[in-house]
Amino acid sequence: MQNTSSLDRLLDFLGQSPTPYHAVAYLSKLLDANGFQKLEESGPWSTLKPGKYFIVRQDGGLIAFTLTDDPLDQTGLRLAGAHTDSPCLKVKPQPAKRKINYLQLGVEVYGGALLGPWFDRDLSLAGRVSWSEENGGFSKALINFQYPLAVIPSLAIHLDREANKKKSINKQTDLVPLLQLTDVDESFEGLLIEQIEKEHPQARPQQILGHDLFFFDVQKPARIGLHGDFITGARLDNLLSCFTLIHALIHSPEPQNSLVILNDHEEVGSVSTAGAQGPFLKHLLKRLVPESERRQQMLCRSLLISTDNAHGVHPNYGDKHDPEHLPTLNNGPVIKWNANQRYATDAVTGGFFRALCQRTGVEAQDFVMRNDMACGSTTGPLTAAEIGVRTVDVGVPSLAMHSIRETTGSSDYSALQEALQLFFALAPKDPLWTGLNQ
Ligand code: CO
Fold it and tell me: What is the pairing mode between strands 61-67 and 258-263?
C-alpha cells in the first residue's frame, strides 16, 4: 500500500496544473522549498558548486539537477525525462463568435486529443497572457479562472439518431464552447483584463496583446474503484511522470550527478525552444561541461530514462494488444520496445531498467505494439538523437490516453518513483552502474 499523503500530493499537483505553465510553476515552488536554487539562463553562472539547481525555459520547460564533487566526465549523468503538455483545446487569437444568441469561443485542437469526451463537461480556462500597461510597459503572467465558465453540449440523440452507431466530429464547427447568452454584452478582452487584475493586483492592464489559453475540465482528479485501485484525472499523460521524476530527485537519499528534464510540446512534435527536439538540454550540458571532449566523455557514461505513460491493456479491447505483451495496471512500470526506433529502448538500456526495478522489488512489464497497428512515440528517441545518449523508454500503464479524463493504477507511480530514486542515488562504483559502462 503506498503512502496516502504522496497520492494526495499527486492529486493536488494534477488539479492545480491545468497547463504546462502551471505545472512548471508548481514544481518550481516545490524544488525551491526543497533546497534547489533557481538559475536564470540569462545570467552568468561561472562554475557551479556541488548542490541542487533548476532552470525554467519559456514557462513550460524545466530542468532540475544535482551536482556532487565527482567530475561529470568521470561519473556521467543519471538522466530522466518527461513532458509537461497534454492534448486539449486552445483558444484562437480572435476567439469571440456570436451565433443565435450565444457567445462562443473558437478553439484549435492542441495535439492528438480524443475529442468525444470533451462534450458535456464543465470547462474552465487557464494559461498565459501578455498585455500592455498603463505606463507603456509590457507584462505577462499566468491566469486560471478555476470555475466552470463554458460547456460544449452534445447534439440530442433525437436530432442525430445515428449518434451511437457513428459519430464523426468536425473540429471547426462541432467543438465550439458556449460561454454565455449574449443578452449581456461582455468582451472576451474585458474578461481577461478582469481576471489579470484579480490574480495580479499590481498589474494595470490596458490592452491584451497575446494569449496561450487552454480549456480544461474542472472535475478534480480522484482515487476511485471499489478498493481504490485507480486514479482518474486529466493530463495523467504525462504530468504523472513529471511529478514522479521531481519527487524522486527531491527524495533520493544521496543523489549523484543527476538531471531531470521536463520538455514542453511533446504532443505537437517537440520542435520548440523548450521541446525535446530543441536546444534546451544541449544548452545546459554545454554550460555544465564547456569543453566538448569532456562533455562527450560524460555523455558516453550517461543514461536517460525517458518516462511517458504506456498503454495498459483494456479489458473491453484486449485484442488491440499483442497477446504476449499485456501490461496491466498496478503491476509495475512498463518498458516500451519498438524495432523501428519509435522507442529508444535496447537490450542494454531496457535490461538496465529491469535490473533497477528488480532491486526495488518490482518486476517491470514489457510493451510492444501489434505489427498491424501504428506505434506512437515519445521524447526518448528525440533526446537520444539530439545529444547521443543511451536511452530507455518506460512509463506507467494507463487507459484512455489523450481523453479529457484518463485512468492509471493507484500504485504504479510510486513503484516508478522508487526505481528513479534508486537510479539517482546509484554510486559510481555500484556494480549496476559500472556494468553499464564496461
Ligand atoms: Co505522453
Answer: antiparallel
